Amino acid sequence: MFCIYCGTEIPDHSKFCLECGKPVPIKIQLIKTEPPAEDILKKQVSIYWPEGYMPCNSCTIIDIRIDGQPVSSVLYGQSMAYSIPVGEHQFIFSVGINPYRYVFNLDIQNHTIITLKFDQTGTRMSMIPESL
Ligand SMILES: [Zn+2]
Question: N or C: which end of the chain has fewer CB within 10 A?
Fold first, then answer.
């Protein structure tokens, strides 16, 4: 089974996670099944564009492509959640005419928040992945 806090695989019937040390809830101890295949292959990712500097006055939407496919868009100051297969992906964020490309390896361990930040001139964007 897997620790619900850090996702580490731990022996069935463990009372504590060997990785993070947190206690395993009783009812989780009694469930000894692998998660369904879909849960193994996909991962919840939130893409967040916090308020701050903007690339231009009317640029309030960032279009998102993952592995070349248009996925959706994120609005200024908001976040969007996606289910994305685990593994390495190319992310392209387009705002105005500028595309920003990043390759990011999505692991299975944790929910991931990807924060999009522009520098103070609004011309450079960085993608800050963070696992919870
Ligand atoms: Zn753990």
Answer: C
| Residue 11 to residue 59: CA distance in whole angstroms | 50
CA of 33 to the centre of ligand 1 (A): 17
Q: Which of 80, 84, 64 is nearest to 72 (CA)?
A: 64
pTM of the model: 0.62
How many A from CA of 106 to the centre of ligand 1?
19
* pLDDT digit string, tens, across residues 62-111: 999 999 999 889 999 999 998 888 888 999 999 877 788 999 888 776 67
Task: Kindly give the distance from the C-alpha atom of residue 25 to the centroid of ligand 1, in angstroms, as a whole number.
Answer: 12
Buried residues in 55-71 as b, exposed as e (16+ CB within 10 A): beeebbebebbbeeeeb
Classify residue 34 as exposed, middle or buried by CB count within 10 Å of its CB (0-12, 13-18, 19+). exposed
- Structural domains of the chain, ranges and CATH numbers in brackets: 1-33 (no CATH), 39-131 (2.60.40.2890)
